[in-house]
Amino acid sequence: MNGLAKALQLTHVSEDPKIPDDVWEQFVRDSERDIRDSAPKEPSARAREVTERLRRQEARGELPEGWRTGPAWQQKKSRRGLWSVLAVVVAAGVAVVAVKPSLVPGDPFGARTSSEAASSPLPQETTAPTAAPSAEPSQIPTLDDPFAGSPAKRWADGAAGIAVPKAKPVGGRSAAKVEQALELTKKLLVESNLDPATLRGERPRAALDVLDPLQKDVRGILETGLRKPDEKHDPLWMFSRFDPEEVRPVGDVVKTRGRMTFKAGDHASVAVHADYTFVYPVVQTNGSTEVTRTIIRRILDVEISDPAKYQVTPGKLTVVNWDQDINNSACEVYDGYLHPSFSSSDPTGPDPTGPTSDPYDRSKPLDTDRDKSCGTVSRV
Questions:
Q1: Is the pLDDT of residue 156 over 60?
Q2: Which CA distances in Å does 235 have to 199, 208, 322?
Q3: What is the distance between the alpha carbons of residues 312 and 310, in angstroms, rounded to a whole number?
Q4: Separation between Cα atoms, residue 199 and residue 201, nearest integer Å
Q5: How does 297-310 read in b/e, with b if 16+ C-beta sit within 10 Å?
Q6: pLDDT tens digits along 222-267
Q7: CA–CA separation, 258 vs 275, rounded Å?
Q8: Measured CA angle at 322 (ends 132, 329), to 5 deg
Q9: How many CA atoms within 13 Å lie on the side-chain side of 282?
Q10: CA 358 – CA 325 distance, rounded (Å)
Q11: Which of 22, 67, 140, 370 gives 20 to 30 Å between its CA and that of 331?
């Protein structure tokens, strides 16, 4: 009974409103009584005397053959009765677990569905993936579920997807300097691609403040692009901006995935490399409920150099390289805004002539000599 009691403890049902405590307790008491009543007992003196007399009669041939059939059947019936009671108790426990499996620790029946596993968050990206994400079931994004049908549904939300690696000294620069470079890089990415004001097309002041004002070529391009954008001065090279009169974000979540690394730079510096993809769900401001997504992959290489050796501003980032792959936005439109394509609206800009690509494929580098003509995407 001890072993049975321990097993029953795993399936206690006091938490289940379908089985009142008093009913369950009465059931357990009745079951224990039945087990005690059916258990073998020590025979009395009278019973031992009768048994011995019958044995002597059997030895003298005074009893008919097969006389034990009755008692043997009774004995077998009693054992079957014992196991029947045990079976009822165990069956009741199994039934309770079936109704409420959460009472048993862990997940003994593999209750987690494949759909739940498919929607669980991905771990942080630490190395370059070897292939594009697998195809998702075809689903139409909605206002309630703007990432439906997208691999990004399992990506981290916003800044949570920009994980800063653990800092350590490199190239004669202390761990503290490395950490400073990493945190400033994250701030630049967040303020350039996730800040709600930046996304609404406002001036990205916090992002610009991270950049070294002494690097006049980079600051000049960006400042001119924000003030008077054109093909040679495009703020979209660094900032994600939507025309607030044309579209608005769906919800407040931008999905983010990528990684950040660092090494010793060439200018007595800490060099940081960032490779991140951002997915923006948007809807038109004309009252339509059609949801579409713009996907942007950004590559950023920055440094913090030793101000004792180079003419730099302490605590500011120097941009060494940047690149971007913008998908589902009008090509050859240089007004400083992203223009997502909607199936219910006429396209903006020229028809695409370039290759078809998967905007979620992070396994391939953004080669500088790649075809940058206006192309199409295999999915959004």
A1: yes
A2: 12, 11, 12
A3: 6
A4: 5
A5: bbbbbbbbbbeeee
A6: 999 999 999 999 999 999 999 999 999 999 999 999 999 999 999 8
A7: 5
A8: 60
A9: 28
A10: 11
A11: 140
Distances (CA, A) of 66 to 76, 188, 231: 16, 96, 108
Q: CA 149: distance to chain centroid?
A: 15
Sign of CA dihedral 69, 71, 74, 78: negative
Between 2 and 251, residue with greater pLDDT: 251
Cβ atoms of 260 and 165 within 8 Å: the answer is: yes
- Cα dist from 342 to 54, 155, 164, 193, 288, whole Å: 98, 23, 35, 22, 10
Give the dihedral sign, CA 63/69/75/78. negative
**Per-residue tokens: 102:** 């959460």
pLDDT score of 346 = 79
pTM, 2 dp = 0.70
As given in the structure block, the two tokens for residue 231 are: 């093909």
Q: Measured between alpha carbons, how far is 295 from 285 in angstroms, rounded to an integer?
A: 20
* Token pair recorded at residue 62: 């005074």
Predicted confidence (pLDDT) per residue in 289-308, tens digit: 999 999 999 999 999 999 99
- Which pLDDT score, from 0 to 100, does residue 96 have? 43
CA 186 to centroid of chain Cα atoms? 21
Using CA atoms of 90, 94, 97, 98 in order, give the dihedral in degrees to the nearest 10.
Answer: -160
pLDDT at 84 over 60: no
CA separation for the pair 380, 375 (Å, rounded): 13
Rounded distance between C-alpha atoms, residue 336 and residue 333, angstroms: 8
Tokens of 140: 């139409």
Question: Which bin fits 3, alpha (ψ -120 to 50), beta or left (φ > 0)?
Answer: alpha
User: What is the DSSP code string of 220-242?
Assistant: HHHHHHHHS-BTTB-GGGT---B
Distances (CA, A) of 94 to 5, 12, 90: 14, 11, 6
Higher-scoring residue by pLDDT: 104, 302 = 302
Joined tokens for residue 248: 């608005």
